[in-house]
Design brief:
This protein has about 325 residues and is α+β, with helices and mostly antiparallel strands. The chain is built from 8 helices and 10 strands. It is globular, with a radius of gyration of 20 Å.
C-alpha cells in the first residue's frame, strides 16, 4: 500500500473517508450522505441524516499541538458557550458514551485521528461582506467570547497552549535556521529580530500586569466567521489557547485589508466597546501583536512540508517584512 504522505490530496481524502465512517459508528446518527468539504489541513466532512439534519465531522490533523487535551478544551468551551450564552456557535454532538471527542483509524492512515461532530452552521464567509456594519458585529462577537471567558475555566487537568511567548505553537522556531538563510539577508533578519523583541516586551508587560490569562479563540478572522442573514457565528476554535484579549483582537485585525484598515479597525472597536472596555493598555500594544501574528505565520510557512506553501515562502517572508516595517515605523520602534 502506498504511504499516506505520498498520496495526492484526493487519495488522502479517500482514506480519510473510511476513517470518518469508522468514527461515525460512535454516534447515534442515521447517516444517508457523507461528503468531503475540504482536506486542507483537517478533513472536514458534511453529514446528512435521514431525518433531515446536517452536521460537520472534523478529522483533526495530529499536528500543531492539537492533542487530546487541546481538542477536549475546544469541545468543552463550545459546549459551555452553547449552554450559557446567546452566541451562535457550533454545538458539539456527544457520542453514545457522552464523549465529545472520539478516536478512529483506518487502513492506510498512519495514526489514529481525533474526531468531533458539530452542528451545521449556516451562512457564508464573513469575508464576502466586510462592511463596516458587519465588522462592528464582529467586534461585538469577540467581546461576547471574551466576557464569557472571564468566568469560564477549562478543566484543570488539561495542558493548553499559552500565548506567553511570541511563538506559542509547538512547531520549532526556524526563521533563522541555516537552511533558510537566503530568505533572511542581514537587513531583513534585523527587522524580524526587532519585531520579535517588540512583541516579547508586550507579552512581558502583560505577564507583569496582574491581569490573568483567559481562553481566547486565537484565529477569529473573516474566513472563520459565518454570516447568516446578519447573524455572525464563529467557527474553527482549533487554535484556542490561554492568552489576553489584546492578542485575540490583534489576530483578527491582522487580516483586515490595508486599503481601509483604519475604517474597519474603528468599526470593530465600536462594536467591541458596546459590551466591554477596549483592553489595549497603551498605544501600539495591539500593533505589536499584529506583528506577532505575521511572525508566527512566517515561521509556520517555513515549517509546513506542503511544497505549495514552500514555493510561496520567499514572497510571504518579504511581505511580512514590509508589514513589520510599517508597524514598527508607526510606533517608533527602533
Amino acid at each position: 500500500m502506498k504511504p499516506y504522505s505520498a498520496l495526492t490530496v484526493r487519495g488522502q481524502a479517500r482514506r480519510l473517508r473510511e476513517l470518518a465512517i469508522n468514527a461515525l459508528t460512535h454516534y447515534e446518527l442515521d447517516v444517508v450522505r457523507l461528503r468531503l468539504i475540504t482536506n486542507d489541513m483537517n478533513g472536514i466532512f458534511r453529514i446528512d441524516t435521514r431525518d433531515g439534519r446536517k452536521f460537520i465531522l472534523r478529522v483533526t490533523l495530529p499536528e500543531g499541538g492539537h492533542n487530546l487535551d487541546h481538542v477536549t478544551a475546544e469541545m468543552d468551551w463550545l459546549a459551555a458557550l452553547a449552554r450559557n450564552t446567546d452566541l451562535s456557535v457550533p454545538r458539539p454532538l456527544p457520542a453514545r458514551d457522552g464523549s465529545l471527542v472520539v478516536e478512529a483509524g483506518a487502513s492506510g492512515v498512519p495514526e489514529a485521528r481525533l474526531c468531533e461532530v458539530f452542528s451545521w452552521v449556516d451562512g457564508r464567509d464573513l469575508a464576502e461582506d466586510m462592511s463596516a456594519a458587519n465588522i462592528s458585529k464582529l467586534g461585538e462577537l469577540m467581546a461576547g467570547l471574551h466576557i464569557h471567558a472571564l468566568t469560564y475555566h477549562p478543566p484543570s487537568d488539561l495542558s493548553l497552549l499559552r500565548f506567553d511567548r511570541v511563538f506559542p505553537f509547538p512547531e520549532p522556531v526556524v526563521l533563522f535556521d541555516e537552511q533558510f538563510s537566503p530568505l533572511f539577508p542581514a537587513a531583513r533578519r534585523a527587522v524580524y529580530e526587532r519585531a520579535i523583541a517588540w512583541a516579547q516586551r508586550s507579552i512581558d508587560t502583560l505577564k507583569s500586569s496582574g491581569e490573568p490569562m483567559r481562553i481566547i479563540h486565537g484565529d477569529l478572522h473573516q474566513w472563520n466567521v459565518r454570516d447568516a442573514r446578519g447573524v455572525l457565528s464563529p467557527i474553527d476554535f482549533e487554535d484556542l489557547m490561554l492568552g489576553w484579549p489584546v492578542q485575540d483582537i490583534a489576530t483578527t485585525l491582522y487580516y483586515f485589508d490595508s486599503k481601509n484598515f483604519a475604517e474597519l479597525r474603528a468599526a470593530f472597536q465600536d462594536g467591541y466597546t458596546r459590551h466591554s472596555p477596549w483592553p489595549e493598555r497603551r498605544a501600539g500594544e495591539i500593533d505589536s501583536f499584529i506583528a506577532a501574528r505575521g511572525l508566527g505565520l512566517a515561521n509556520f510557512i517555513l515549517n509546513d512540508p506542503n511544497p505549495a506553501w514552500r514555493e510561496k515562502a520567499g514572497e510571504f517572508i518579504e511581505r511580512v517584512e514590509k508589514r513589520l516595517l510599517a508597524l514598527m515605523g508607526r510606533n517608533n520602534i527602533s
